[in-house]
């Protein structure tokens, strides 16, 4: 960010140069870029070779600078309304590439799994097995690096735009098993466990539910912050609406690095029945420990009854009525307020 841009920006952006001036990269970049494999295979069919990774600090600075440059360039011009869309696309390109690498990694892992279970201790087979494993590890390394860049670019997008970035649509070996096969199986088990933790995070669930036209986002943020003090390892579960209560809780999670799950409507048929089925699934499968419910439709009333309907397991629930909301904040002002909050809470040494 140039001095001219920094001077022109609101005071809340005065801390942004710290993102670039940090002498050490964040943990995510150090983990993904700072300790590369001694050998890697960067293209299918290549021989293993020594290939450098970008420097962690440079990767972090350039990644954040790409997003920042768009907002700096467009601010106070007729293109300013387009900055958010362009920056969203930049983050999405990282997201798309990371997803493509993950699918390639999955296909290669399936091949590796089949090879690892074959009883063929021959030298040629073992060499092929080791190369496939190294290729899969190399893809995992590439995916982790692009994923770290995606997360950091998304954090920069959040700082500048005032809202969270979201995509448009997330054994015991037998005695004849060779050493190479044992190593491959260990690799697959470790990889499967890491992915399980990513998609099935382990922590107490706090449910947030309310209507799409709920406007007092600060009320939700304040209550989530109070719950977070008591339950620091909590996971927020919301109901995947693009606005209102769900958007507010999603933005709070992004600002504070708290995992957030989306409970989508599934199946077909009458929408209200599907919504009630989803409520029951959330109550029975996720076993929430606390809930925030904002007055809305019969869906919220049904959820409240499930949590407090006289069953043996009651869920402590904070219920907010519509008339308790503060005045509706105009959208531009709401974005500026959120932007100040994000900048204040954004720590370049946190993992996003």
Question: What's the short version?
Answer:
This protein has 352 residues and is mainly alpha-helical.
What features would you describe in this structure?
It is a single chain. The protein is mostly helical and 352 residues long. It has 2 domains: 3-169 and 171-199, no CATH class; 205-320, 3-Layer(aba) Sandwich (Rossmann fold), CATH 3.40.50. It is 57% helix and 6% strand. The protein is built from 12 helices and 5 strands. The protein has helices at 3-8, 18-21, 27-33, 56-74, 83-116, 123-161, 179-199, 217-230, 244-256, 271-286, 298-308, 331-345; strands spanning 205-209, 235-238, 260-262, 290-294, 317-320. The protein starts with a helix and ends in a 7-residue tail after the last helix. The model is unreliable at 1-23, 170-175 and 330-352 (pLDDT under 50).
Low-confidence stretches: 1-23, 170-175, 330-352
Give the overall silhouette.
globular
Quickly count the helices: 12
Mean pLDDT comes to: 78
Number of domains: 2
> Helix share of residues?
55-70%
Quote the beta fraction: 5-15%
**What radius of gyration results from the CA coordinates?**
24 Å
Structural class per helix/strand content? mainly alpha
Strand line-up in the sheet with most strands: 3-2-1-4-5
What is the terminal separation in angstroms?
A: 21 Å
What kind of assembly state do the chains in view correspond to? single chain
Question: What is the succession of H and E elements?
Answer: HHHHHHHEHEHEHEHEH
Q: How many strand segments?
A: 5
